[in-house]
Request: fold
Amino acid sequence: MSSEYYRAAIHSAVSLKDHYPEAKITIFTHPEFFNESDRKFFDQVHLDIPYNIRAKMHCMSRTPYEKTLYVDADTEIRSEKIKDVFDILKDNDIMFTRIIPHVSNTRRVDDNNDLEYHGGIILYNKKPLTISLIKDWYDLYQYQMDTSWASSKFKQYDKRMQPWDQFTIWYLLHNDKKYSKIKHDFFPNGGVEYNFISLLELKSMEKNIAYANIEQIIYHYTLPREKVNAGRIKNKP
Reply:
């Protein structure tokens, strides 16, 4: 809910068109941010979305495409190989890039599980069960945030999971029998080239050496917090 993310999304769309002119792009944003002159960058524009920190799941469930690549706004497409991304899905319903531990917060779910799904780049189809999963992801996240952890259905898990929507999707895929038939997987090799986190460029991190020569298909940076806060919509229901 920040104008800075809207500006980042425009940049991301332009970079995609530079490498894949035929790409179909849909943006979900708020009317307060949208500039009519930007419509030329998109196949579809949707302005009727909730004012919610995780509105992305609500928007993902409304995809107009049979196959969709959800991409965070703070990204830049850097390779023509993006054209082949839908071949990765194969017969899977939904696919994620893998969290790289040394550039992410430790997210221990319980004694046997860590969070591995990254929520920034997601590839999925439009089958009814997949869309149902994404809708439940959004609804369950609201419950997760609005309910006391100690009295919630998640009380057996680490309380530090409460803010993370990656935990919500992990819970649904591993604990909800409704989604036992969903085929889910990671991008090949964890999908680093499709979700190249900017922190992987820091030469001060010794573990980054292993990623030095990986082609960046999608570069994923992080907007400065002060910019995000300055452009945020406030006092919305």
